[in-house]
Amino acid sequence: MMKPDDPAVVGILRRAMVARIATVSRNGRPHVNPLYFISGNGKMYLGTTDRTLAALNVKANPRVTIMFNIESEPNDRRVLRIRGGAIVRTDSKLCRWYVVRDLRKYIFSRRGFVNALAHARLLPLVRRFVSSGEKGQECVLEVRPEEAEFLTAPPGVGRHLNLS
Amino acid sequence: MKRITLNVDPVEARDLLERVPRACVAFVSDEGPQVEPVSVLFKDDRYLVGMPSSAASHLTVDEEVVLLVDDGVQFFDLRAIYVRGHVQPLSGMEGLRGDFFWFEVQPTRTVAWDYARIREVDDET
Fold this sequence. Notes:
CATH class of chain B: Mainly Beta
Strand content of chain A: 35-45%
Oligomer: heterodimer
CATH topology of the domain at 7-98 and 137-152 in chain A: Pnp Oxidase, Chain A
Number of helices of chain A: 5
Helix content of chain A: 25-40%
């Protein structure tokens, strides 16, 4: 196990784009889903809404395990796994802080902008979807990492599988 | 009544199971939620999952797991197949990596989403 502030861990967190967060429901059932995230202040912040399974589960059980890889380098098979405790934050100050950094990381980057531009006709729908409150109020899962480890993804996931 | 959805028919996201960009399995142990990177083989409508043997010691037959196969980084590229199901032992499959623990996920619920397919649909609920 490594400390979450190990330079190798911090290096992956700087480059990773999607966090896959595993949580447990009130009834002890597993769940995992991909979320965008920001790291800072020694913590990780994952954006979602408060009626998603991830947020409901964190409210019931704060233990989380999160996996990261470097999507831009598919040949780098390192997978970072972090365990920690999480809380659901809905306060507007933190949510605003998160949204600004989320937009900077995912939309106002060159690739993010090109992607948004290519789907410009869908943006009004996204805006309505986000503001509809269908999935609840915007919130941030604030994760305090406790331990980290590196795994190796199965070689060429899905490609090495040869049935005789 | 209309609602906006990202969900698609899992059949429409089946290509994810053929090239498996990223895959993991979540389950619950005494230490809380666990998640492991896995290999996936979708064959004859069966979800076959390979996990390093060292990581599989917590898994038991009939245990509930979630298999997530996802792809994309940019917003409108995000796609996934989410399979909730139970672990079943695998037999009669030759040629799978011997140093992996292989099992089948018998699905109880399968969902897929594709952010580029966001659209308005009739709310049937």
